[in-house]
Amino acid sequence: MDFTADGILARMKGSLKNEDSRIEGSFTMDNLQAVSEELARFNAMLIAPLQDELAAQGSDMGTSGNEKHYVKWAKEATDAQGKRVAGNAKVSSPRDGTGNVYIAIVSTTAQAPTEEEIQIVQEYINTKRPVGANPVVSAAESIDITIVCEIHKTAGYTEETVKSQIQADVQAHFLEIAFQSGVISLNFFKVSNIISAVNGVSEVVDLTINGKKDSITADYNKFFSLKGVIISVTE
Asked: What is the domain partition of the chain in residue ranges?
């Protein structure tokens, strides 16, 4: 089942009995759009990471102390209220004879963790580490991202609705890639395609990411933090 904002909206729209309510820009459709965006964000933040975790568990061959285990242990650590503190971990284990294993974590909302959360994960992994391993937990560093785009809008859509959907879909993509391990890429063409696919966008006239028309990569200990999407709209 499609849990993107478009997929959710299409299913809710199909359930409407009144044909007038299905018209784009109507009060009903504007409200359904807002609801579908929130449900899509919920899926990106909670359901998608859970699916990744189940897949990782299924592929776990049972060896001790490999990088998948450190990711799993980091995500198992909980605070005093029993809540998980790490959304994901990114691991580097250089084979230099030191036994050091570097684990950079992001919070469950794809932000940098607090010092307390880092300590919780460190202490938990210390109880799981194999003999000879020296795990070092730290906060993943954020790379601030500002996206500026100019679009042509399709007639029949409000500017507010189109801007809101672009913001929601871009944010959902940031959450998705923030939970990937290893080197990650914020692909320029992927972002352009996400914006182009939004209902009401007829053309992406211009697009920059941090002032450039290029993709950006981040090492294992970094993640992208969306600071803003600045959108200019013309008919």
From this structure: 5-51+142-234, 63-139
